[in-house]
C-alpha cells in the first residue's frame, strides 16, 4: 500500500464525501468557486474548541464578505455534533450573538483526518477510549482552484487566532488580484510590497506612488488603487 502523499502548500486539497451537520457533502462540490477554511478539532465537548467554534460563528460576516466558506471537522459522530452546537451557542452568547450555521464534519473513524494528516499519532495521551488518536488543531486555507494556500497546526492547549487567519486570507486575495506581497505585521490598509517580478517601469503604471527602499524592496499604498 503506497504512503499517503504529504500535503504541502500548493497541493490540491483532497476531495472527499462526508456526513455533516448540514447533511452529506462532496467537499469540492460544496466549496464551488469559493475560498475555504477547513479546521479540525480534537473532540466535541472540549473547552478550547467550544470557544473557537463560537468565535467562527460570530465572525461569519467577515468570512462571507471575503467569499470564504468555513467547515469544521471533529472526531465524533453527528449526534454529538448537534448536542455540542447547542453548548457552543449557549456559551458563545456571553460574547455576542452566536449561531453556528457552518457545517461540522463527522469523522469518528478518522478517515478524513487521516487523509489530511490531522492526527496526533505521536502523543499517546491524546487518544479516545478506543485508543484512536484525536485530531490536532489544524487549519487549511484553500483557494477557489482547490489549492492549499495555508496550513497551520496548533497544540491542543492553545486556541487559534482567527484574526490572523483572516489577515492571511486578505493578503492572499490581494496578492492574487495585484502583483504584490505583504510585509511583516501587515494588516489590510497598510502599505504593501511591490512583487519582485514587477519592473520599475511597470511599477510606475501599476503603483504610481511606490517607494524604492532597496533595489529589491519597494513599497506602495494599495488601498487607493483597489
Walk me through the structure:
By secondary structure, the protein is α+β, with helices and mostly antiparallel strands. It has a five-stranded mixed beta sheet. A four-stranded antiparallel beta sheet has the order 8-9-11-10. The protein folds into two domains: 11-160, 3-Layer(aba) Sandwich (Glutaredoxin), CATH 3.40.30; 178-221, Antioxidant, Horf6, Chain A, domain 2, CATH 3.30.1020. Helix 2 crosses helix 4 (78-92). The protein has helices at residues 27-31, 47-58, 60-65, 78-92, 111-115, 162-177, 200-206; strands spanning 17-20, 23-26, 35-41, 68-74, 104-106, 137-142, 148-154, 180-181, 192-194, 211-214, 217-220. It starts with 16 loop residues before the first strand and ends in a 6-residue tail after the last strand. The relative contact order is 0.15. Thiol-specific peroxidase that catalyzes the reduction of hydrogen peroxide and organic hydroperoxides to water and alcohols, respectively. The active site is at 49 (cysteine sulfenic acid (-soh) intermediate).
SSE blueprint and pairings:
Blueprint: E1 17-20, E2 23-26, H1 27-31, E3 35-41, H2 47-58, H3 60-65, E4 68-74, H4 78-92, E5 104-106, H5 111-115, E6 137-142, E7 148-154, H6 162-177, E8 180-181, E9 192-194, H7 200-206, E10 211-214, E11 217-220
Helix pairs in contact: 2-4
Amino acid at each position: 500500500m503506497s504512503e499517503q502523499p504529504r500535503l504541502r502548500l500548493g497541493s490540491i486539497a483532497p476531495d472527499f464525501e462526508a456526513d455533516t451537520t448540514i447533511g452529506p457533502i462532496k467537499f469540492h462540490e460544496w466549496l464551488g468557486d469559493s475560498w475555504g477554511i477547513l479546521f479540525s478539532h480534537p473532540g466535541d465537548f472540549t473547552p478550547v474548541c467550544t470557544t473557537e467554534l463560537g468565535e467562527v460563528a460570530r465572525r461569519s460576516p467577515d468570512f462571507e464578505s471575503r467569499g470564504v466558506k468555513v467547515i469544521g471537522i471533529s472526531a465524533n459522530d453527528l449526534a454529538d455534533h448537534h448536542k455540542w452546537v447547542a453548548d457552543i451557542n449557549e456559551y458563545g452568547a456571553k460574547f455576542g450573538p452566536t449561531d453556528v450555521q457552518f457545517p461540522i464534519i463527522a469523522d469518528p473513524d478518522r478517515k478524513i483526518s487521516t487523509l489530511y494528516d490531522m492526527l496526533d499519532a505521536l502523543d499517546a495521551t491524546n487518544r479516545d477510549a478506543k485508543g484512536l488518536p484525536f485530531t490536532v488543531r489544524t487549519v487549511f486555507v484553500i483557494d477557489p482552484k482547490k489549492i492549499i494556500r495555508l496550513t497551520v497546526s496548533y497544540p491542543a492547549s492553545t486556541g487559534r487566532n482567527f484574526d490572523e487567519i483572516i489577515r492571511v486570507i486578505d493578503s492572499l486575495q490581494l496578492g492574487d488580484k495585484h502583483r504584490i506581497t505583504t510585509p511583516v505585521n501587515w494588516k489590510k490598509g497598510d502599505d504593501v510590497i511591490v512583487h519582485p517580478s514587477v519592473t520599475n517601469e511597470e511599477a510606475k503604471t501599476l503603483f504610481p506612488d511606490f517607494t524604492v527602499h532597496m533595489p529589491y524592496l519597494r513599497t506602495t499604498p494599495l488601498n487607493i488603487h483597489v
